[in-house]
Amino acid sequence: MSHEREPTNTPARPEEPGLPESLDPPEEPGPPEAPDLSVVIPAYNERHRLTPTLDALTDYLSADEPRWGSWEIVVADDGSTDGTGDLVTARRDPRLRLVTGEGNRGKGHALRLGVAVSRGRRVLVTDADLATPIEELERLDKALGEGDCAAIGSRSVPGATIGARQHRVRELLGRAGNALIRRTALPGIHDTQCGFKLYEGDRAREAYAASRVNGWGIDVEVLRHLRDAGLSIAEVPVRWSHRPGSKVGPLDYVRVLTEITRIAARSVRPADVFAPFLFLLMSVALYSGRFFDPAGRYLPDSLRDQNQWEWFFAVTADNVAHFRNPLFTDLQGFPDGVNLMANTVMLGMSVPLAPLTLAAGPAVTLSLVMTLGLAATAAAWYWLIVKYLVRSRVAAFLGAALAAFAPPMVSHAHAHPNFVVLFMVPLIIDRALRLCAGTRVVRDGVVLGLMAAYQVFLGEEPLLLTALGMLLFAAAYAVLRRDAARAAWRPLLRGVLIGAAVCLPLIVYPLVWQFAGPQSYTDIEHNPRSFNSPLALLSFAERSWLAGDADTAKALAFNTTEQNAFYGWPLALLALAIVVLLRKRAPVTALAFTAVAAAFLSLGREFRIPLTGVVLSGPWELLADKPLFEAVIESRVAMICAPALGMLLAVAVDRLLAVRPPVTRYAGLLAVAVALLPLIPAPLRAVDRAEVPPFIAEGTWTSYVREGESLVPVPLPDPSDADALHWQTEAGLGFRLPGGYFNGPYGDERVGIYGAEPRFTSNLLREVRNTGEIPPVNDSWREQARVDLAYWKAGVLVLAPQPHDSALRTTVEKLLGESGKWVGGVWVWDLHEGTRPRAAPITLP
């Protein structure tokens, strides 16, 4: 009901000729004057609680009319059956209005009706129990007067006071709900469900009219509507006390969860769902040669890395299943063992995925980790670019695709999951940027520490390169924007220190084990060609679909899994044009500096100017021998260029799409296409995997290897031939192997090497495999072989068909003084004297 405006005194209107006085048209009343404040109360069967609430409201608002001005109270009856509506009409106060809906449809429906009929310049929405006293309106009104469009009462910000508390279970459910709302629908707002909110009147009517949910989730939907419109919301601490008689039942929590899910789903742009789906398709296409048959297909360009990584996942799952230390094993490198923490076994993936590995095998696990990890990395870069750099989803997609599928990423995609699964890197960058804002330093510092700790268990070298790239960007940005740097450095430093305090206790034991535990090493020498040539940065990668040149790529990189540059000259020219045209934007210049500095560092200790004999000292010389950096392959520093170039590309495309002249727009997009098309990777090459000999696959080996013994392949597995690791995983890790493919110590100085510490016999057999020449075996060599076999606790020697296998077989026979036996597709030498008959040499057909 509404009251009418009082008629005003107006001069008498002169009579019109021929018109009787009784037929004069009556004067129409004007529209009622809008009150200063509307109070909207949703009510369902609130007869007993509503009376004191209405008394408190009318007394407070009437007592200070100069402060609050004219006001009205709108009770939105949600189909009450206890006479709630009659209570309102019985008061006969024109400032009290009743609006009634059909049936009981929920708090959201009632509020939508109530706010729709409100007329106030400001609208206060409050619950019928007035758990927040009306005196708190003063705080909300003050906040609204400072420029916000909404001021909401909060029980979860500093300064709030809680009197009578809810039941402990309901309180915990409320906190969990608020946490979920912050993570999904309304980041930054701590308490959306406190029933005391003040809005600008027109904004409130617009937001509630646009709402769709009928239940308790309407508060979230309305605030989300205001936030999406770019309007500010103040969260104000208030006094609050629980009132008995709450209408919130157990099922309402489920309904609210459903409504929040609907609200969050409606706010997601289709492009933000489609982009990760496309990234997944791109990743599956890249791995299509092996994705659908991971156990039966092999990536030959991965060299021995696929065998090694499958073994890493298998041994970690085995350690977890048997409650053994996941940081060490003696299944490889027997009897000394392998320091797994020093070998980047990605415990952050291999441990939680242990059940999958045990159920489906390590080949399936590795395939999923590589495929999904690459897609997740692209999606994370997309999210970061959209959040901080561009509005265009097309621009963000192209930038993220370049960051995740750049040539060096594709090179590592062969079988280096620690350099492919990088989805934590954009999240770490985001948290550092939040720290610069200085709003929630403690929380963001703690989260940063947890993220860094997790990234340590995914890959330490990518984390180091991330930190290096962030430092390069920060240095450039600080020079360009000194005001921003002065405002950001204190909260950033404080947050980083908090993060370190959180991170270090979580990683200190694994790191001590890595650097001082069994089979740890001090440093490791890499290939002397592990740097980038300047030409490599401008050339095309071997796996480039349109422009790839295998001979050129192999001449400029020391192996196919370390082609860490190859961005191509068209992309370099495009990046230069972007920087020249957008140089006034500080992020663009800082990103360009980051990419150039990283590329320059990747040139190594010294570099030769192409087409000349001039050799210059490289900037990597300053870092090469420093702690942590001494183990980095310097060519990998160029991987920092991928996200930097991706972000530059996103900014440029975003600007191009907004350019008015079509000619300029199309010319710019054509330049982007010319730069990106040569970088599209072809699917990774895959071949049928060599079958495991029946001697291993059928379990025949169990008759030859006793407890505490090892199976010795001929020659021993090493970084150049690691098929025996696949044998071991196929055998369920049932036997131990001397030798292997891992990083371990060598000599008294414990210098890092690839593989086990060499012994006389392992060197001899490797030399025969490489040359095919049978050496002149003498008694001294036979004695050394006996010592080595005893050291390895060898139970059996196994020689599988391979190049130069005849020379290997003859050499072993000379060393042992006995012939081998053909069993299950391999030559076997049983080393248990007297337990098996010695067989004469067998001539194969």
Major beta sheet, strand line-up: 3-2-1-4-7-5-8
Major sheet attributes? 7 strands, mixed
**SS summary, helix count:** 32
Question: What is the beta-strand fraction?
Answer: 5-15%
Integer-rounded radius of gyration:
37 Å
Q: Can you count the beta strands?
A: 21
Q: How does the overall form come out from the CA principal axes?
A: elongated
Q: What is the residue-mean pLDDT, rounded to a whole number?
A: 89
What's the N-to-C terminus distance?
105 Å
- The percentage helix is 40-55%
Identify low-pLDDT runs.
1-24, 834-845
Kindly name the structural category: alpha/beta
Any chance you could write out the topology, listing elements then pairs?
Elements: E1 37-43, H1 47-63, H2 65-68, E2 71-77, H3 84-90, E3 96-100, H4 107-117, E4 122-126, H5 137-144, E5 150-154, E6 161-162, H6 168-184, E7 196-200, H7 201-210, H8 218-228, E8 233-237, E9 239-240, H9 250-267, H10 270-286, H11 288-291, E10 297-298, H12 305-321, E11 328-329, E12 338-339, H13 347-350, H14 354-360, H15 362-388, H16 393-405, H17 407-412, H18 424-437, H19 441-456, H20 460-480, H21 482-516, H22 534-538, H23 550-556, H24 569-581, H25 586-601, E13 606-608, E14 615-617, H26 641-658, H27 662-676, E15 687-688, H28 694-697, E16 710-713, H29 723-730, E17 743-746, E18 751-754, H30 760-771, H31 779-791, E19 794-799, H32 805-816, E20 821-823, E21 826-830
Parallel strand pairs: 1-2, 1-4, 2-3, 5-8, 6-9, 16-19
Antiparallel strand pairs: 4-7, 5-7, 10-15, 11-12, 13-14, 17-18, 19-21, 20-21
Helix pairs in contact: 4-7, 6-9, 7-8, 10-15, 10-16, 12-14, 12-15, 12-29, 14-15, 15-16, 15-18, 16-26, 18-19, 18-21, 19-21, 20-21, 20-25, 24-27, 25-26, 26-27
